[in-house]
């Protein structure tokens, strides 16, 4: 029996700011307050090569630090390079409405009589009181500018969470432009309704009416403010599927006329990825499949069926965001370990190895293992453990190895066959770069014979222990054991 013994490859990647976003000439300053303009972040150009092999980081400023400030997050930006981060997505940074502010998912602060008790409820990030200001709880606009500049200095882009579907109840438009909002038969502004005309339960926000063209223009103007005045690099658009596609067809070209930007849609609709609109959408169905795999409710065959469906549904240059957690999943469904248990590491690695861009959510890198409060102050841990180490090595591999490319010039995907239905194995390839992911996606030990060409390249394992690859006989995989192999 022929055996090939391979040894752990130590991956070392040096990535300097020189490889980060290129600078664009600022042009002549038109602002008479030259000192104020000098403090604004420099404009940068989106580099598709960076996005091709990047990691996106979702920053929950409120819960990231005890202070809950821009400055507390800014000082940690340089170390995000260790995780391969190329895009920082800031959860909503705007002031939060006081009127009908959420205290719990089912109650508002108006129901609380104790003034001191009311103070602890900070409301939903997604109840925006002013599209052109920052939440004073996070700091000043100057603090925000320092965050953006620090990210640019470290070769990262900054996108901000944009809430186009609704505003808070004390947004200026409520009184100045009530015609901007959806109204019921009595002429009253409503909270968002579903397709059956029933409330979603988002009582702290007022639904915007996209039949009003003046409102659309005002929304585009507000978005331009952050691109032109504050130097951001794009938007993550909340519930983008609830906004008419015609708006995105109008808005995104207008925004790109100011600067090339990166657009992430909280949606899973191929139509809004066409014609140079959104670059990336959520892979919600993929995420739900990972949860089901971890619980033993889905199988490798279900994964294969999903991948076939995905390849038929999306165009080759569409990008999907892969994740094991985000702000919604953590707060409402539970942290990674609660949902995925012993499968967590194998499924995390899978989000890096398939086509797309992997997401890291604040606290995930520090083994966050509780549900962050959504309407109150909370805090993530800050001790680096095994997850930081895994994310660091996965991020470095993602940044440096072309077979991990997941954007517009993605590496290929080829399913590898084996004799075991509980084992997932696939190969990705781009140029001379090749990668294999193999995992036992079950809670029981498995023996597998992997169909790898005997005359093909030798493979070195990444991340896990030294692994003996037996090309002539079965290999044993412990429950949820996985390996990432690269061409030697």
Features:
488 residues, TIM Barrel, 16 helices, globular
Quick recap of the structure?
This protein has 16 helices and 23 strands. The chain has 488 residues and is α/β, with parallel strands linked by helices.
Structure write-up:
The chain contains 16 helices and 23 strands. Mean pLDDT is 89; it is low at 1-20 and 22-38. Strand 6 and strand 7 (107-108) form a beta hairpin. The strands form seven sheets. The protein has an eight-stranded parallel beta barrel with strand order 4-5-8-11-12-13-14-15. It has a five-stranded antiparallel β-sheet with strand order 16-17-18-23-20, covered by helices on one side. The chain has a two-stranded antiparallel ribbon with strand order 1-21. The chain is an alpha/beta fold and 488 residues long.
What's the structural blueprint in terms of helices and strands?
Layout: E1 4-6, E2 22-23, H1 34-38, E3 44-45, H2 48-52, E4 55-59, H3 61-64, H4 70-74, H5 77-80, E5 85-90, E6 102-104, E7 107-108, H6 115-119, H7 141-153, E8 157-162, E9 166-168, H8 172-176, E10 205-207, H9 213-228, E11 234-237, H10 245-256, E12 262-265, E13 280-282, H11 284-294, H12 300-313, E14 319-322, H13 327-333, H14 336-340, H15 344-353, E15 357-361, H16 386-400, E16 412-415, E17 423-430, E18 433-440, E19 446-448, E20 459-462, E21 467-469, E22 475-477, E23 482-487
Parallel strand pairs: 4-5, 4-15, 5-8, 8-11, 11-12, 12-13, 13-14, 14-15
Antiparallel strand pairs: 1-21, 2-3, 6-7, 9-10, 16-17, 17-18, 18-23, 19-22, 20-23
Helix pairs in contact: 9-10, 11-12, 15-16
Tell how many strands the DSSP assignment holds: 23
CATH H-level homologous superfamily name: Glycosidases
Give the uncertain stretches in residue-range form. 1-20, 22-38
What's the number of structural domains? Answer: 1
Strand residue percentage: 15-25%
The biggest beta sheet, please? 8 strands, parallel, barrel
By helix and strand content, what is the structural category? alpha/beta
- Order of the strands making up the biggest sheet: 4-5-8-11-12-13-14-15
Distance between the termini: 22 Å
Helix fraction, binned, reads 25-40%
Roughly how many Å is the radius of gyration? 24 Å
Task: Provide the CATH top-level class.
Answer: Alpha Beta
Coarse morphology:
globular
> Mean pLDDT score, rounded?
89
CATH fold naming: TIM Barrel
Assigned CATH architecture: Alpha-Beta Barrel
Enumerate how many helices there are, as a single number. Answer: 16
């Amino acid at each position: 029996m022929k055996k090939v013994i391979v040894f752990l490859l130590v991956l070392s990647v040096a990535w300097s700011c020189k490889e980060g976003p290129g600078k664009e000439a600022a042009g002549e300053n038109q602002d008479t307050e030259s000192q104020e303009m000098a403090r604004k972040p420099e404009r940068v150009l989106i580099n598709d090569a960076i996005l091709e092999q990047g990691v996106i980081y979702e920053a929950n400023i409120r819960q990231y630090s005890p202070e809950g400030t821009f400055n507390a997050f800014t000082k940690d930006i340089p170390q995000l390079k260790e995780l391969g981060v190329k895009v920082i997505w800031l959860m909503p940074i705007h002031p939060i409405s006081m009127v009908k502010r959420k205290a719990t998912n089912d109650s508002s602060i108006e129901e609380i009589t104790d003034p001191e008790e009311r103070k602890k409820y900070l409301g939903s990030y997604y109840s925006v009181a002013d599209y052109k200001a920052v939440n004073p709880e996070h700091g000043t606009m100057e603090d925000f500018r320092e965050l953006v500049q620090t990210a640019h200095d470290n070769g990262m882009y900054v996108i901000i969470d944009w809430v186009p579907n609704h505003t808070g109840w004390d947004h200026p438009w409520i009184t100045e432009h009530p015609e901007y909002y959806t109204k019921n038969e009595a002429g009253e502004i409503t909270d968002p309704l579903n397709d059956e005309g029933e409330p979603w339960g988002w009582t702290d926000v007022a639904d915007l009416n996209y039949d009003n063209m003046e409102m659309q223009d005002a929304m585009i103007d507000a978005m331009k403010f952050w691109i032109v005045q504050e130097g951001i690099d794009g938007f993550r658009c909340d519930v983008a599927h609830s906004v008419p596609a015609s708006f995105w067809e109008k808005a995104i070209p207008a925004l790109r006329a100011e600067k090339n930007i990166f657009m992430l849609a909280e949606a899973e609709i191929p139509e809004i990825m066409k014609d140079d609109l959104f670059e990336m959408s959520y892979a919600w169905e993929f995420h739900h499949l990972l949860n089901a795999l971890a619980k033993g409710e889905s199988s490798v065959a279900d994964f294969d069926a999903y991948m076939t469906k995905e390849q038929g549904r999306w165009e080759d240059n569409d990008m999907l965001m892969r994740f094991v957690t985000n702000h919604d999943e953590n707060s409402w469904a539970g942290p990674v370990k609660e949902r995925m248990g012993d499968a967590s590491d194998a499924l995390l690695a899978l989000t890096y190895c398939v086509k797309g861009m992997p997401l890291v959510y604040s606290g995930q890198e520090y083994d966050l293992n509780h549900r962050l409060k959504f309407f109150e102050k909370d805090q993530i841990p800050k001790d680096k453990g095994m997850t930081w180490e895994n994310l660091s090595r996965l991020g470095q591999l993602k940044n440096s190895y072309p077979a991990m490319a997941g954007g517009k010039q993605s590496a290929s995907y080829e399913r590898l066959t084996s004799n075991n239905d509980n084992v997932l194995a696939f190969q990705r390839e781009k140029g001379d770069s090749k990668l294999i992911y193999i995992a036992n996606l079950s809670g029981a030990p498995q023996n597998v014979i992997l169909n790898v060409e005997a005359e093909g390249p030798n493979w070195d394992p990444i991340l896990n222990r030294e692994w003996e690859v037996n090309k002539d006989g079965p290999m044993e995989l412990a429950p949820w054991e996985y390996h990432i192999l690269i061409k030697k």
